[in-house]
Records
---
Amino acid sequence: MNKVVIDQYAVIGNPIKHSKSPIIHAMFAQQTNDLMCYDAIFSSLDGFVDRVKEFQQQGGKGLNITVPFKEQAWELADELSDYAQSSGAVNTFMFNQDGSIYGANTDGIGLVRDLKERYQIDLTHKRVLLLGAGGAAKGVMQPLLEAGIKALVIANRTEQRAETLATNFVNCAKELGCEIRGGSYNDLRGQKPFDLIINATAASLQGIMPPMPASCLYDKSACYDLMYGGQPTAFESWCKNNGAALVMNGLGMLVEQAAESYSIWRGRLPETKPVLENLLVSW
Ligand code: ATR
């Protein structure tokens, strides 16, 4: 009798208990009739590399990596996708047969797909404001620039980080015809309003709105918080109260980045719409 092999995947992070990834991937597997299982692995802060190696040695095929290990994952990968290379962070591992590790970053693809496909936002020639200059911001830079935006302003509490991030992407932006600048929240005063504002700061975790002036918004601005939760984030509420045309959060991006990881592992892109609808109902 042939032995049935169930391919093993997981998400690794700290904390990990509230991760939606196992539910999302179970829905993808059901949809595509794939024999696979997907667990959640907790790792101590100094135990990431050992937990990854253990999972790999037990025959694991791939991992998603979440906070706070994406930079460590970047260090550990033997080969990197373009987006992983440019962002300095990895959220997907695929374990090759020879034991080497391929690292990808699907976060930015997830964001751009959610904006373009679910919300039907045409990003070409748009003026975009990115709040934050940490790991989450870096992860979305290249796919955003490749989407054809006209201008990208990065604002951050620590001004220097925003300037460095802008400088790191200046060549890429130039090639793609986009003007890029980094600075402080104060620098936003007196600037023309933005078509799209993305909150990539950790402020929503603290229930705080970043100090963005209301003059950044106009009646056609679309606002996207990379965070999500059962309740609107402080950023979502503030943007709604200050006249944004559309307010979105990162739940759609979560499903889209998961689908992209799934396609790296399994060679086909699952449908995301029914999965997102299911998540919204069961939240
Ligand atoms: P992540 O990987 O989630 O991006 P990070 O690399 O620590 O985490 O970056 C957090 C980002 O949120 C940074 O841009 C941070 O600003 P600083 O670089 O000045 O630290 C930003 N951030 C965190 N709390 C914030 C707050 N209350 N208001 C505005 N920005 C905040």
---
Amino acid sequence: MKLMFLGAPGAGKGTQAEVVSERYHIPAVSTGALLREAMANGTELGMKAKSYIDGGALVPDDVVIGIIKERLAADDMEGGFILDGFPRTVAQAKALDDMGIKMDGVISIEVEDDAIIRRLGGRRLCGKCGASYHIDYKPTAKEGVCDKCDGELVIRADDKPEVIKSRLVVYHDQTEPLKDFYAEKGVLKTVVGQEKIEDTTALTIAAIESIRG
Ligand code: AMP
């Protein structure tokens, strides 16, 4: 099964991708996480990506397409995968088509901009392993400490209020047109993002079950 999550930053793509990955035993691939890992390791790619990410802009298509091509060629992708945060432009979606990859389902998680701005203010990230949390919706057992690796929680540089606004503009301009792109292919499912993570998960699982038929 090849699934994709679309949605604004903070809509819950990564959170739902993680749950779905565990439930269906298929790996989730997040280009944002791969880019943050490259930045943390100080690689050439990471250094190139940093200014775009910190400013709330998209990393150029050729760079991200290169990353995804390499990741999708790995052996663990053979039984299917979940894409989280890729594609983000029509050019990236066309690149997936050119790679001969046909998605079984594309799930768009819909959340209003006002709610996104509120949510992202409470988002936290493990500085060590990259796991994602939220102070209200997905708190850690011990405040400020990652449940998975005991790493320290940090606020993402691109979750600052002024950067969040740019990211939303980019989402509406460049990524939202992908809903039409995949609706025309007949694979788009819409899930209305709920206040509670488990409520969004229930709707997401229902959408996936309808895709599996
Ligand atoms: P995310 O973790 O998905 O919110 O991604 C964080 C940041 O990484 C985005 O705001 C972009 O700057 C960059 N990024 C992630 N995925 C892509 C992509 N598919 N195309 C371009 N930039 C991306």
